[in-house]
User: What shape does this take?
Amino acid sequence: MPSLKNPKADLRKRYFRTYEISLIVSLSVIIVAFKLSPSISQTEFIPERTQEIIKIDDIINTVQKPDIPPPPKAPQIIAAPIDGIVEDFILDDIDKVEPVQLPDKPPSKPKIVDDEKIFVWVEEMPAPIGGIKAIQEKVHYTEVARRIELEGTVYIEARIDKKGNVIDAKIIKSLGGGLDEEALNAVISTKFIPGKQRGKPVKVKIVIPIKFVLK
Assistant: This one.
């Protein structure tokens, strides 16, 4: 059977020829590259620099003493004429001097401030004579408080002296409707049994609750 392949299109015939040409070209390029490369003798070598050693000396810390100021100068004494000083104090006419009038009334005595300690808690606390009932009987409902049906408690802070008298009183919790004034007046008008500390009467500050209840 005759071959159907065209002999002109057979690549195997040209394979060895192409291989030889490629090998020759490659070797030629390598030889030319070696010829054109610079020689080793022409390269420059940079010499290594030796490291400089820096020596640091220890610095001694010195303290500078401040300059001593010069001593102060001694004060100069200037003599003044005595005659001129005496003449300034001589009165021209002694009769012209008016006498000083003394006040007719002696000076008033200084006020003595009562600085005795006021206790808040003592062994025997003050108590109203007749009990708290005696204070409650003194208070009355005002017309305004009765109309609005106001009820509650008014707290009064009172200071009781050694004799059982109320020397000061104030409202610390208000209720309104005129009942505060009723409670305050009832406490002020009440006599107390004085408080005692170690058997002796002392001033005491107490808080008294006054209740208002409609009946």
